[in-house]
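User: Can you help me understand a structure? I only have the sequence.
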Amino acid sequence: MESLFQLGNWLIVLSSDFSRMGLIEGAESVNFIKPVGPGDVLEVHVETAHCREEGVLFDGSIRTNGTIVAHASGCRMRPAPLDDYRNPEDMKTLFSEIHRPFAEVQA
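Assistant: Let's start by predicting it. Here is the structure, written out as C-alpha cells:
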C-alpha cells in the first residue's frame, strides 16, 4: 500500500509543478489478495476519482505477473505545500533519477 500512496503522491507533486505534495488521510477499503515475495516486480496503477484543493481521491491496484495482488479504493490524500516537508529541487532531482518513459523502457 505504501507504493500505491507514493505513486498517488507523485501525481500530486507533478501536477502541481513541484509545489504541493499529498499527506495520507486514509482509504475506504484495502484488499490484500495474494502475497508477494522477494524478486516480484510490482506494477502499481492509480486512477484519480477527483482532485480538488481540499483533497485528492483515487483508487489503485498492484499487480505482479499480470495478477492483481492488492487493491485499494477511496484513497484520500490532502495536498500540502511541498516545501514545508521537502526541498522541491531535491524532489526534481529524485524524479529525474527514477522517471523512465515507457518508450525508453521498451528499447
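Now, to help you interpret it: Helices lie at 2-15, 88-98, 102-106. The longest helix spans residues 2-15. Let me know which part you'd like to focus on.
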